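Check out one such.
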Amino acid sequence: MESEFKVKVEAVALPRYQTISGWDYAAVNADGKRGAPKPTRRLVPAGSVYFLNLENANVEKFIEEVWLKAVSDDEQSRKDGFGIALLGAWDGTVKEMEVK
């Protein structure tokens, strides 16, 4: 996904990567038969958090462009729904959390 925004990753909070694979029913294997395993991929798990700094950016335009869109590197991954982005805001100050 091409972007006009200058984005700097300040920090990340994520668990260990997940490995996935699958089966490609359309592929033809070495024996001439249909079906072959897809290559394995490492994914950032759902719920991972990236803290971004949008340098001199129109935040509203950034949110409109990215909110609930797939921001994966390649087209097929975006079509498969990988990399869906949900956005939040943080002013950079640590606050006490009240737990009841």
Remarks:
- The two ends are 42 Å apart (CA to CA).
- The longest helix spans residues 59-66.
- The mean pLDDT is 86.
